[in-house]
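Q: Fold this one first, please.
A: Sequence and structure below.
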Amino acid sequence: VKLNLDKYEIGFASKLMYDFVYDEFCSWYLEFSKVHLQSDTDSHRLVTLSVLFEGLKAISIMLHPFAPFITEEIYSRLPGHQTSIFLELFPQVLSLSNDRGIYGFIQTVIQDVRAYKVRHQLAPNASLQLAIDVTQLDVQPYAALIQRMTFSEVSFKVVAPSVHVERFVYPMGSLVIEQKVDLVAMKQTLLSQQAF
């Protein structure tokens, strides 16, 4: 964002900010943080609140060139603020790995479950049986997060191949969605799609 702002490429900078705030911070981090905020562990809640605070502060500073009045108002309500957002330094870029790790895997699982529901014309809050088989990552501590984001029951087991499951294979493991499938209805749907 700063690089584009320095080159007066306001459109590119605003697109990057929009994508980050909407797609990453709001769609993912805020949703993930709800599970941690409801945790019984005080340290989880405090770390989550701290990251949310720093994230909101940094976002306000970066959005200030695009929306000065609202960002100044939001900033003025943050604890420990200076007299004006103008006195803050632009957030520095951290060197991060492209390895999305466990959260990348969880995001992919959630996206695949949501896409499955759309493809099978299920309600977004339809409950499914999810079986996750992962060897390289310890995903079990995040079961509550996956359950909350998919409205589904999550188990960690290996499921044998079957016509009544849909399997998603990832480099780190697999996801199996177990659902009773009406094969006759599926055949009708496929035949109707083939006509086009």
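Q: Good. Now the second chain.
A: Here it is, same layout.
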Amino acid sequence: PWEDMIADACLKLARSIDHKRAYELLANTRLITAVQSAGEAIEITDAEGNIEYVNPAFEELSGYSAADALGRHLRTFLRHEPEDRLLLEGMLQKLRNGQVWSGRLVARRSDGTFWHQGATISPVVGPDGTTTHFVGVKRDISERIEAQIALRQSEESLAATLNSIGDALIVTDETGCIVRMNPLAEDFTGWSYQEA
């Protein structure tokens, strides 16, 4: 009888372990499928920034194949301008402190063109508390950035045109509030745009 009890306990333990392994396998399979299917580029680097994994969206957005990217340092794919250096230093400082960083990066595609990335990069901490990896999730925000640049240029062009008109010009919105005055209108009224 006691041998049957031990055998029964061992069988129950084995089933429990099999259920746990099956659950872990299913969870891992779902995670892998989700990462592979994501529309955002996902990169996993080691603690030094060398790429260990990229998903298909990374390949599509950057033009680099996984084989081209693996083992290369993440900096290889970023633009190298003076303003980028300060941004990257701030990002690295935050990541080294174990914090998540979110912001905008500019990366180079395989064809040499640049693309603006809305990026979130998270440190992955091991059991001993040290950072072992970084996970980056990036989306292409190039169209939004280009639209912002075009809007700013249009506003600058409009301001230059309005300021060059030889008559006093006051522009109001639909409620009658002054939204723009050219320098001649400021001279004529004695008000600055901010006072109007």
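Q: Anything worth noting on the second one?
A: The two ends are 98 Å apart (CA to CA).
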